Amino acid sequence: MPADGALLMLIDEQRLGFKVRSVPLDAPWTWLAKGWRDLCAMPFASLGYGAVFCAVGWLTFAVLSQHDVSSLIVVLAGGFLLVAPLFGAGFYEMSRLREKGERVTFRSVVDGCAGAVGRLAMFGIVLYFAYFLWVELSFMLFTVFLGGTEVPEASTFFHQLIFTNAGLGLLFAGVLTGAALAGLVFCLSSVAAPLLLVKDVDLVTAMATSIRAVHANRGPMLLWAAIIAGHMALGLATLFVGLLVIFPLLGHATWHAFRDLVDLD
After folding, report:
1. N or C: which end of the chain has fewer CB within 10 A?
2. Cβ–Cβ under 8 Å, residues 206 and 12
3. Could you give the CA distance from residue 119 to residue 196 in angstroms, rounded to a whole number?
């Protein structure tokens, strides 16, 4: 039996997680449309939260540039994709409140998230471990392909990355490594963070539900992963300006994905 089949059988036998639904292949576009409606209905709250991440991105880039290691922004920005599900909790709560017809305020969002701080913190440890692993693997790849232990300057680095054999090897290996790690995190976190936010469940149950949701909807979830990756890449390529809209959009859409995929009853 394949390893993933054995894992799913174990999860099913232990009855971990909530019941998951099957969705049509084009469901991710519906989630995106609903996310856009949430963003338009709550523009100040959504864009204000998104602006925080733009500011953090600019500040990080400024600090790296000051220390002549701005090329590391590629590594840190890539790692942001791994921890983004945790930071989206505010958007999940906004969409949840709007779905219930309640008023969305800063205090109501904070109060809603406060009840799940402990559960989300445990999930955050898992995501930050993945982030740490990505950074360590990136430095190892730097050393293997480019040699030396110093981080190259941005102008030199990008020239090496595109116009040298070693750089192309680094790019290929980095993309494969990042995709594998991101795929694992995607399977574990697709619905785990919203579930931890709204239900008093343990981390294993939340991640098991996420794995089962991805496995039961491989086509739609592959499309959803591609949509997320494409949008986030666009946001990062615009020096974080695009995240002002893209991160809230994906955050709200993730809530609707969770509501479609998981039967809370």
Report:
1. C
2. no
3. 6
Give me the pLDDT at residue 154, please: 65
Task: Give me 104's structure tokens.
Answer: 């969305």
Per-residue pLDDT tens over the stretch 77-97: 878 888 889 999 999 999 999
Cα-atom radius of gyration of the chain, to the nearest Å?
A: 19
3-class secondary structure, 19: strand
Residues across the chain? 265
Does the CA dihedral 159-162-168-174 come out positive or negative? positive
Q: Encoding tokens for residue 108?
A: 């109501």
Locate tokens 């991440």: which residue? 53
**Coil/strand/helix, residue 143:** helix
CA atoms within 13 A on the CB side of 209: 25
Cβ–Cβ under 8 Å, residues 31 and 95: no
Distance from C-alpha of 43 to C-alpha of 123, rounded to nearest angstrom: 28
Q: How does pLDDT run across 129-146, given as a tens digit for each residue?
A: 999 999 889 888 888 887
